Amino acid sequence: MKVLVIGLGGVTNGGKTTLAEKLKNMLPNCDIISQDDFFKPESEVETDERGFKLYDVLDALYMDEMVASIRNWMKRPTTSGVVTEEAQNTCDNLKNVYILIVEGFLLYNHEPLNKLWNRRYFLTLPYEECKRRRSTRIYQPADTPGYFDGHVWPMYLKYKSELEENASMQVDYLDGTKSQEELLSYVYSDIVQELNKLRE
């Protein structure tokens, strides 16, 4: 039995969750873990001097729990509740391969996670498009006026530049303004190549 752990990270509202769900429907024995499920309750998230809740930082998340969940899945993917029915285009020789897609906005800046990835993807968006998409979403708690410019976007730029400075980190940057079909086709083909390497 082999496992493949795929990171699908990047900018807020970049299309990570949608892409992860579509890949899950196309790949054999595929499961998703979402970083959003590991946010601390609002009362435990720090507030800065401007009154902004600092959600876009690692300290706002139970990262140790997230790492533990991924490791547990890797040890026992068959008991994770993953659906093992045939996905489209599945070859018989992939029945013993289990795929985990981990999606979230801060995946590659936490050292314990970096030992786990087989492939890393990072969705990007230009500022205007990201702000436009973000304004159409309802968050709990809701974004306060100035929150995107004062916290969300600066944190995205900070973590992205940290990532780019880390020369040892192999990351495939994806343009989030491309159509979902285009992104899906590219990532799916890339994962299938990775699966074929596992089979060899």
Overview of this protein structure:
This protein has a five-stranded parallel β-sheet, sandwiched between helices. The protein has about 200 residues and is of the alpha/beta class. The longest helix is centred in the C-terminal third of the chain and has 20 residues, at about 180-200. Helix 2 (about 65-75) links the parallel strand 2 (about 30-35) and strand 3 (about 95-105). It has helices at about 15-25, 65-75, 110-115, 125-135, 145-165, 180-200; strands at about 1-10, 30-35, 95-105, 120-125, 170-175. Residues about 85-90 have low confidence and may be disordered. The chain is built from six helices and five strands. The chain has a single domain (about 1-200), classed as Rossmann fold (3-Layer(aba) Sandwich). It catalyses: beta-D-ribosylnicotinate + ATP = nicotinate beta-D-ribonucleotide + ADP + H(+); beta-nicotinamide D-riboside + ATP = beta-nicotinamide D-ribonucleotide + ADP + H(+). One of its GO terms (molecular function) is metal ion binding. This is NRK1 kinase. Belongs to the uridine kinase family. NRK subfamily.
Low-confidence stretches: 83-90
Order of helices and strands: EHEHEHEHHEH
How far apart lie the N and C ends?
14 Å
Placed side by side, the strands forming the largest sheet appear as 2-3-1-4-5
CATH-derived architecture: 3-Layer(aba) Sandwich
Q: What is the CATH homology-level superfamily?
A: P-loop containing nucleotide triphosphate hydrolases
Percent range of helical residues:
25-40%
